[in-house]
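Recap for those who missed Tuesday's class. We walked through two folding examples back to back. For each one, the amino acid string is listed first and its predicted structure tokens come directly after. Nothing is annotated here on purpose, so try labeling regions yourself before you check the end of the notes.
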Amino acid sequence: MEMGTSAQKMDSVPSIRRLTRDEWREYRELRLRALADSPDAFTTTLAQAQARDDADWSSQVARGAHSPSEIALVADSDSRLVGLAWSGIDTSDPHRAWLTQMWVDPNLRGLGTGRQLLGAVVRWAVGVDARLIVLSVWPSTTSWPSGESRSPAYSTPLAEPWKSPRRPTRRCGWGRPIPWTARSEGQTMRLPWPVVRIANAVTNLALLTGIPRPPYNRSNALIAETIGRRSGKRHRTPVGYLDDGGRIIVVVEDGSRAHWVRNALADGGRLRIFLRGSWRSARLRLLDGDPERYLARMSRVHAGFVRLEASTPGVIELMPD
């Protein structure tokens, strides 16, 4: 595979469009590249894909190109396909959409192509009256390379763990909580940063458009917008919260060490939040208290993620102006 330079990467910004029915050969080549690059990200193996006949590829692309309940989106850079996203409506629930394929060429990662693809999926889902978008990632046991910050490939659901015949699914296990005082550094499990980035992007888009993404919706999640204390860039982070009698309470996995919290504190505790459908200025303050007191009243799945990833959890109150 040819590796482009940084300058070459920036020369052409990929456009996002729907695949056309006569592009089944181009899609086949793209799909095989994705499977070769990230074999653990998909249920289909490279060997299985290579064994498919032309008629099978053509039929699949025809559905993705014209079906009202399925869409195949690609990133096109100078007439070369460099990314894909495939989404479809659940056959048992017309208001549920699945994101079943997601991949971006390694040379184009880190430039926002994946975010553009996800945005196009969300807009399509809104147009077909989907109310839920279900994303899932393969919980690989392989660590990401040190310093990796670009999104590789992703497949289908966080809400309903995917089971593969090739190897068992690693469950996140939100069950009985381990007391914070009993946690050792080795007991804290971190999801890979590329997985966090893709999940955050989907959740942000879902909140902005009003589409619930289990377990999150506008009644239990918001977007915290801060300005990087070093970069000066805008950052948006989806945050689960508890409405505690009108108080907006957040349990943060890393407490005051979380990047978005540190950004806000560096600005005098000021930030913007997207809360219940509108942007509002807000202030942040750190609270003393047992995180478990609040987690016990939050979504079980969200609380499980926090418990799974927490190192030094902290309680924060967000106070809209």
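Example two. Treat it independently of the first, because the proteins are unrelated.
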Amino acid sequence: MNRVTMKKLRILLLITLSLSVSAVQASDDKLQVLATIHPLALLAASVVPAEQLQVLLPPTIDPHHFALKPSDIDQLQEADIILWGGPLAEPYLTGFVRRWPEKNWIDISSFASADQPVNAHYWLSVPVMTATQESLAEALGSSAGDFADTMDKARQQIDALLTPLRERGFLVYHRAYDHWVSENHLNQLGSFTINPEQKPGLKTLSTLRGLIQEGSVTCIFYEPGVSAEMIRGFTGDHPVRLLELDPMGADISLIPDGYPYFMTELARRAASCLSGTDTTSLHTGGKG
């Protein structure tokens, strides 16, 4: 083998090694995104590839009283971008935000406007989540894609479903829906509790019973984990419909259009109860 051939082989080997190193570095440079709760993962899936997206809490877990395990802390450490609900929704993370300032913490509550209700469930606000998605795309160095357009189309469907029902009074079990109610101009008359871990007080129950007795309440929305039979017992013989709504969207898959589908499905289910088209939710006393 002559010198020229040897030189060419060395150059070829160096190029091959260089390309291999570059490929490994490119793989290592893929930013890892951690969404702390399922609704935020639904949003993140619009712009984050599945292999780069992790979720901290299981889908059915509400973040109000979550306690981090060592494995959860490991997930936080491994993430480059952490999409979280903010200190009001997830106070257990505030210490980690201070501890690891080099990480990109995207606090969805920071996108709320001054005139929005002060309520921890900012993931139920379409403007907040649209702005969050744009911020996440920017952090990833990628395009936000057609998310805004998809959300606009979902918004039109939501308006068509809920606008005719704005005067219908309803109750919620847990005070989770303030942003959703405000943005859709709905008539939420009250809630059983602010925190799902706390039982309703006697004064609250008396007020809600009065609303039911005077015929102001069309529907009561309860959540997974809340006994429908308990709510039925409370309504007595009054013709109030009951329907389960999930503010976490636990049964919705992590697909690119997951968040718009979540909001549309929330509206569809609420409308079915408020309009009376869901006859299975009608309660006029007794069981069933």
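Answers for example two:
The chain has ten helices and nine strands.
Residues 11-28, 283-288 have pLDDT under 50 and may be disordered.
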